[in-house]
Amino acid sequence: MIIAREKEQEFFHSSPEYAHLASRMGSEYLAKLLSQQLEAVIRARIPSITSLINKTIDELESEMDHLGRPIGSDAGAQLYLVLELCRAFDKIFKEHLDGGRPGGDRIYWVFDNQLPAALRKLPFDRHLSLPNVKRIVSQADGYQPHLIAPEQGYRQLIESGLSYFRGPAEASVDAVHNVLKELVRKSIGETEELRRFPTLQAELAAACNKALESFRQEGRKTTVRLVDMESAYLTVDFFRKLPQEVDRAGTGYPVDSAGTGPSTPVDRYSDAHFRRIASNVSSYIGMVSDTLKNTIPKAVVHCQVREAKRSLLNYFYIQVGSKDAKQLALLLDEDPALMGRRQQCFKRLELYKSARDEIDAVSWSR
What is the pLDDT of residue 64? Predict the structure, then answer.
């Protein structure tokens, strides 16, 4: 090849037709010219190639963040990761309750719609029907009829009537419990960092549901206690303000509107007398119903919603804190398909970074 190039140069320099162009003729000059053209094309294309590489690296970095970085092998790093994942879940759960995400409004719906509707459906019409009032008042008197007002009959009618409030109270507790369980499920599903750890998701859901169950039991105790408190001590002033059927001397005659004296005799065993008892008891139960309509939601929020915000994960933290490295590794067990996808993504990312480094290392200036 050396001899051939020498003969080529000799030909162009000795030829009358090409002697004046000899410096721009021959394979060596052609190679130099083509190299310059190639360099010019590369110079023009390098910015777009670099831009494409950088864009692909950013996409792969984002995908790696979505898939999650590799997990550390020591127990401290694993425990830190578990706690970080729990904090991410807890943040989303509280956003559901506080209004940043949908779902918490369903708790208000329980208080504003379900509870009042349940209170309206209670069978007080049957409980305060004339035959039932007669029966309870008569049984309460025993062998000796009441003298002025059938106090024992009143008490039995009220106490047995107030027991109906237990049902709506417990139903409100259960309804809010179901809402909280659903919000836990949704929050786990919406926590992207948890998606790669199905075992951790299951353990977290079980621990949260166990905590919510304890909150429900406390909510039931408190709301039922509110109902029992109303039954344990009646509001005496309510009955003192009611119109009296007999005068203060117990003559058995009603006092007229001016309070100056008796008018016509009253048959204490007439239907009108028992209807008056039923009406008074109904008014008292209505007053208690209005009270419980306000206090039951307070008790439910205090025992369930507030505790869910404050200490939903306390039980889970105790469990996690007692696990060793092997148990934490099992807790952070990943889906094999996800692990394979991350490995492929990692290899591609390394290749693109290597290409970028090589391009940056080349100097195109002369």
Answer: 84
Distance CA 309, CA 82 (A): 19
Helix ranges (H only) for the chain are 2-14, 27-67, 75-98, 105-109, 115-120, 124-127, 130-141, 151-162, 166-190, 198-232, 236-240, 271-300, 306-311, 314-321, 325-331, 336-361
What is the pLDDT at residue 268? Answer: 61
Helix orientation angle between 130-141 and 271-300, rounded to the nearest 10 degrees: 90
Q: Residue 353 contacts by C-beta under 8 Å, 6 or more apart in sequence?
A: 57
Instruction: For residues 198 and 66, give the distance between their C-alpha atoms in angstroms, rounded to a whole number.
Output: 15
* Cβ atoms of 308 and 215 closer than 8 Å: yes
User: Structurally, what CATH architecture does the domain formed by 83-243+267-333 represent?
Assistant: Up-down Bundle (1.20)
Structure tokens given for 228: 């029992």
What is the distance between the alpha carbons of residues 303 and 173, in angstroms, rounded to a whole number?
9
Residues lower than pLDDT 70 in the chain? 70, 72, 141-149, 243-269, 363-366
DSSP letter string, 155-218: HHHHHHHHGGGHHHHHHHHHHHHHHHHHHHHHHHHH-GGGTT-HHHHHHHHHHHHHHHHHHHHH
CA distance 77 to 79: 6
List pLDDT tens digits, range 37-72.
Answer: 998 888 888 888 889 999 999 999 888 887 777 676
Which region holds residue 274: left if phi is over 0, alpha if psi is between -120 and 50, else beta? alpha
- pLDDT value, residue 148: 60
First to last CA, the chain: 28
pLDDT of residue 294: 95
Residues in the chain: 366
Residue 262 is given by DSSP the state: B
